[in-house]
Amino acid sequence: MATTLDKVDVVTVGVGWLGGIIGAECSKAGLKVRGLERGAKRGTEDFFMAHDEFRYAIRYELFQNLSKETITFRNTRKMNALPMRMMGSFLLGEGLGGAGTHWNGHNWRFLPYDFQIKSMTDEKYGANKLGSDYQLQDWGVTYDELEPYFTKFEYTAGISGEDNNPFWGKRSKPFPTPPMKKTPILQRFEKAATNLGYHPFMMPSANLSESYTNPDGSTIAACQYCGFCERFGCEYGAKSSAEITVIPTALETGNYDIRFHSNVVEVLKQGDKVTGVRFIDTVTGEEFIQPAEIVVLTSYVLNNAKLLMVSNIGEQYNPDTGRGTLGRNYCYQILPSATGFFDEQFNTFMGAGALGMTIDDYNGDSFDHSNLDFIHGASLTITQTGQRPIQFNPVPPDTPAWGAEFKKASIHYYTRTLNIGGQGASMPHKENFMSLDPNYKDAYGVPLLQITYNFTEQDRNLHKYLSEKTAEIMKEMGAKTVVAANPLTDYDIVPYQTTHNTGGTVMGNDPAISVVNPWLQHWDAENLFVVGAGNFAHNGGYNPTGTAGALAYRCAEGIINYSKTGGSLV
Predict the structure, then answer these.
(1) 71 strand-pairing partners
(2) What is the DSSP secondary structure assignment for residue 205, as one 8-state letter?
(3) Contact yes or no for 349/386 (Cβ under 8 A)
(4) CA–CA separation, 525 vs 568, rounded Å?
(5) pTM above 0.90, yes or no
(6) Which of 342, 504, 509, 348 has the alpha carbon at shortest distance from 428?
(7) HEC-encoded secondary structure of 78-136
(8) Tens-of-pLDDT digits for all 570 residues of the chain?
(9) Residue ranges per domain, the chain?
């Protein structure tokens, strides 16, 4: 028998960056907000210890417990989907702060081209550039409309950067803090890229170059360049994340609270509205009903989509007919790259998650695709993140994979190896989607999410073209040996690649091809909002956090307006 709790104005499912932003903005506006977080409470003080690569990077201390809930995966519909029993291609966060606790801190605005990708591509290259199997669509919002929300997120997070990239959208304000240190490694990339006619710039970073107090009064410390960002929490409070910014802001209002160990298993719906959520206390096993005037799904991409599916809200995408929107346009990312082996040593053991230099000369539509067999591109970046000793064992080709010779080469090249990598765009394809698995369930009796995904010809062509470009830059940097990434074959969910999943709950102006409207309000339930990278109609040439953060601020504005007037916001 479920226990029914007191009704609140707004309940968020998940308390990371997105749930924290919704919580802060709505509670500041006077709404009573409750955040439901299935993980535990944690904060900066929990990371006051020696850096433990094994605990966090190998044994995944901060991530979702796959023994209780995972996903199943297959490349095609003809294959049997099987559960992922260990963290592989992507790392799902759990606990206060979500994936924003363990992120590297790369913070980007998607390009103006991204938001109007179909209309701009059709206008320039014709409607059949990729073919009918690809499901390109505009987002229902332009870059200019989203720009104020980008700015708000960046000033909340204190993003460090410089506005000298000729290819990205116009900014209404400068970055709130200066760029990070331009190390000798980055200077070498800058010189090589400039020699080749490109336009290098310092990566926008949530590892702050200096101490910063944001407009809400939260202070973020300066980065120490210790090299333990990705997969780790920051013991200095120098990596901007929800638990040191928006969550304290929300709590200070007195209108916000959080329930931990609260796993939401269903969104409750009556007629054309939702009434709240049902969740299970993961410690006691007790079941609760949380009534709410407004429900906001702010969990990770995969979890938001799954929750709508198990709650039977929206029409599941059918690849046979093309009908339905829920689970549609699932995209991942491609990673063109080149590795260089040098004679001289570098301080590769030092760095920060977003200490890097980038070129956008091959991102979006900044170069002509008329005679190319793909669209879009990638940001090409060299990062100095701090290479850790357990997982980083680079050796040149033809080196034995084990034994004395491998050990000798691994030690020698530990400080003599650099990599240029691209975050490559992924276009939606009719055969790449999310659904519920018919065979497997989680520890709470809920069907697992099933992902059907494989690389496409678009992916393979883009990857090959840009891997060659990264190799050219690495050669110009003076590497003794340059190794470009192998051509793409089938996508494999192992090993780790990025946590940059997108799609499944796509936004847009047309309910026939989108789950939510441009204010992230569900088409089938006016008091249900869904926000995150799942709203992306495709994946771009950057990581998704900054764009998801901007959407969260736009969503919060929509929720506040809806609380006053009701009805559809479009």
Answers:
(1) 449
(2) B
(3) yes
(4) 9
(5) yes
(6) 504
(7) CCCCEECCCCCCCCCECCCEHHHCCCCCECCCCCHHHHCHHHHHHHHHCCCCCCCCECC
(8) 899 999 999 999 999 999 999 999 999 999 999 999 999 999 888 888 878 898 988 888 889 989 899 999 999 999 999 999 888 899 988 999 999 999 999 999 999 999 999 999 999 999 989 999 999 999 999 999 999 999 999 999 999 999 999 999 999 999 999 999 999 999 999 999 999 999 999 999 999 999 999 999 999 999 999 989 889 899 889 999 999 999 999 999 999 999 999 999 999 999 999 999 999 999 999 999 999 999 999 999 999 999 999 999 999 999 999 999 999 999 999 999 999 999 999 999 999 999 999 999 999 999 999 999 999 999 999 999 999 888 888 999 999 999 999 999 999 999 999 999 999 999 999 999 999 999 999 999 999 999 999 999 999 999 999 999 999 999 999 999 999 999 999 999 999 999 999 999 999 999 999 999 999 999 999 999 999 999 999 999 999 999 999 999 999 999 999 999 999 999
(9) 3-565
Q: Two tokens at 166?
A: 């000729």
What lies within 8 Å, CB to CB, of 358 at 6+ separation is: 165, 200, 201, 202, 203, 379, 380, 381
For residue 414, give both structure tokens: 């530990």
Cα 559 from Cα 555, distance rounded (Å): 6
Distances (CA, A) of 183 to 205, 488, 564, 568: 15, 32, 51, 51
- Across-strand partners of 359? 380
Give the residues across from 422 on adjacent strands.
380
Find out whether 371 and 517 touch, Cβ atoms under 8 Å.
no
Locate 126 and state its tokens.
Answer: 């014709």
Cβ atoms of residues 290 and 8 within 8 Å: yes
In this structure, CATH architecture of domain 3-565: 3-Layer(bba) Sandwich (3.50)
2 neighbors 243 (Cβ within 8 angstroms)? no
Helix (DSSP H) and strand (DSSP E) numbers for the chain:
11, 20
- Its sign, for the CA torsion 6, 314, 24, 239, is positive
Distance CA 510, CA 118 (A): 14
Q: How many CA atoms lie within 13 A of 280 on its CB side?
A: 12
- Name the 3-class secondary structure at 384: strand
Amino acid letter for position 24: A
- Residue 569, token pair as written in the block: 């916001």
Residue located via tokens 């609270």 = 257
Q: Exposed, middle or buried by CB within 10 Å (0-12, 13-18, 19+), for 51?
A: middle
Position 536: which residue type?
F
Which residues carry out catalysis?
500
CA 66 to CA 392: how far, in whole Å? 25
Question: Phi-psi bin for 444: left (phi > 0), alpha (psi -120 to 50), beta?
Answer: alpha
Distance separating alpha carbons of residues 519 and 337, to the nearest angstrom: 36
Q: 297 with 11: CB under 8 angstroms? A: no
